[in-house]
Every structure is written in structure tokens, then in C-alpha cells.
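HUMAN: Forgive my ignorance: could you write out one protein's sequence and C-alpha cells?

ASSISTANT:
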Amino acid sequence: MNFSSEEGYIKFRYGWIPARLPEMDLSELISYRQKLYDLNLIGAYAEGIGFGNISQRYRNNQFIISASGSGNDAQLDASHFCLVDDFDLAKNWLSCIGNLPASSESLSHAAIYSTNSQINVVVHIHHPEIWSKQIDVFPTSDKTAEFGTVEMAESLKQTLQKMETSHGIIIMGGHPDGILLFAENYISLNEIIFNLHQLHI
């Protein structure tokens, strides 16, 4: 099934196969998504629009990511995730398998995984206070590159290449409130979440 949408938040073109995921252990992915939800770094705005997503590398540059609209859900299980099995950043296109289509920021995750093979976890959160205070303090992507676009994906790749690290934080300059966290593993991600949380308490 092929789709192209600019309504809501999904701006990329995608091929979606509605099907169950291959058997795999998603326990850490689900646990850390819950942690981020409880911290209100993933969730939904008052008008009901969900924000934030989390992914982990699967094979090569394939990855498992929380599905579109799942920010509204207080608890997730395996049915709320999908596998992005192929993508083309230049064409703003991806292919995914799951009960629901991939999250709106999936190509931002793809940009990170395809740039650094040591990165195995990526999180996209929203936090207006941290975003406004830390823009240009933390590495920041192009402020003219909007979310869900080829320009955003390319800017994230360039920003990550300059950072020369496999764990850290990128402020999404053209996506108000948007922040990307990335790490080699969940232990490293936990440290990043803790340090980020300390910035606004």
C-alpha cells in the first residue's frame, strides 16, 4: 500500500504493509518509551495531537519505531511499533511493516542510523523550555529545515557528522520544541535522559 500525506504530521511518502512485526524482544524499547511518557517528553498536546517517538536499530539501517499517533497512548505494546525496512532520504520515502504506519519523524531517525553505525537508539522528544534555552547551545540543525522534510534529514546528518560521537543531543532548529537524543545503548540513553531532565528541575 502506497501513501503520500501532508496532512497532520506525516509529510513523507511511504509504502506500508499492514502486518505483525517479526518476533523480537521489544521490552527495553517499550520500557524506555514509558519512562519518556511519564516524564512528559513523549505525549500529546491538549488538542489531542501526539508528539515524540522512540526507535531502536534492527538490522543494518533498518529500525523499529513507535507508530504514527502513538504519543496519545499512555501505554504501548508491540502492536504500537512498526519496522522501517527501507528508506530513501533524497526521495523522502520509506517502507514500513506493522499494524500502524511509521511515525512522522521516521526519516529523522533514518538519517541518524545511516550516518553512524554505532548508534542503536534514537528518541525524538518535545520540550519547549529546553528547546528555547538550549538552541545553539547544544548542536542545532538548520533553522530553515522543517520537520519531516528532506532538508531536515540532510541537516541532521550534517550536524551528527560534525559532532563525531555516537551519543548526544541535537536541537531540531527548524522544528519548535523538537529535540533528538541518540545513543549506543539504553544505558547511555538513560544518562542522557537524566542529564536533560536536570536542565529544567
Summary: The helical segments are 27-38, 106-115, 128-134, 150-163, 186-198. The chain has one domain: 2-198.
